[in-house]
Amino acid sequence: MYEVGHWQSPYTEDQINSSAGFTYLITHRESGVMYVGKKFTQSIRRKPVKGKVRKRKEVSRSNWLTYTSSSKYVNEGISKFGKNAFEFEILNIYSSRAETNYGELEEQVRRDVLRARDSEGNFQYCNLNIMCRFYRDKAKP
After folding, report:
1. Which residues form the Putative endonuclease SegE-like GIY-YIG domain (predicted)?
2. What are the φ/ψ torsions at residue 139 (nearest 5 degrees)?
3. Which helix (H) or strand (E) holds 3?
4. What's the confidence (pLDDT) of residue 134?
5. Across the chain, what does the average pLDDT equal?
6. Distance (Å, whole) CA 79 – CA 68
7. Which string of b and e fits 45-79 if b means at least 16 CB within 10 Å?
8. What is the pLDDT of residues 24-47, one digit of tens each?
């Protein structure tokens, strides 16, 4: 296992940088509540070119080394408890953006992030939706 920034990873930094993206698991050490997400390692922007109809494609490295999460819940927890109260783990890397999207979906469904509960009846994951299409409050237990 490698330590890359605040991430624990089975992959080296070079392997991650050469991938299109990765799926990750963030765990609050004290409560055990988890979050499954994805992060692209490259940012793609289309910029207009003077005198041309088509736009130029610009690729730049994303902020994945310092990235925490897009989850409001997770980021509030980091603000409250500090980054050290969480474990950041890279689960898998992917060679395309499409594979990264599918990998996140597959991981979230496999872990049943919308319905999984612990022995006390609390949700194990703080994911509130999958693909902004399937929501926890509409998921049947």
Report:
1. 8-130
2. -80, 135
3. strand 2-4
4. 81
5. 91
6. 11
7. eeeeeeeeeeeeeeeeeeebeebbbebeebeebbe
8. 999 999 999 999 999 999 988 888
Q: What is the residue type of 72?
A: K
Q: Please count the residues of the chain.
A: 141
Q: Rounded distance, CA 124 to CA 32, Å?
A: 7
**How many Å apart are CA 66 and CA 42, to the nearest integer?**
14
The pair of three-digit structure tokens given for residue 115, joined into one six-digit string: 């319905």
The DSSP secondary structure of 110-122, one letter per residue, reads HHTTTT-B-TTS-
Residue type, 29: R
User: Strand 2-4 and strand 129-130: pairing?
Assistant: unpaired
133: buried, middle or exposed (CB in 10 Å: 19+, 13-18, 0-12)? Answer: exposed
Mean pLDDT to the nearest integer, 54-58:
83
In angstroms, rounded to a whole number, what is the distance separating the alpha carbons of residues 138 and 92? 29
- The verdict on pTM exceeding 0.90 is no
- In three-state secondary structure terms, 50 is coil
Query: What element of type H or E holds 46?
Result: strand 42-48
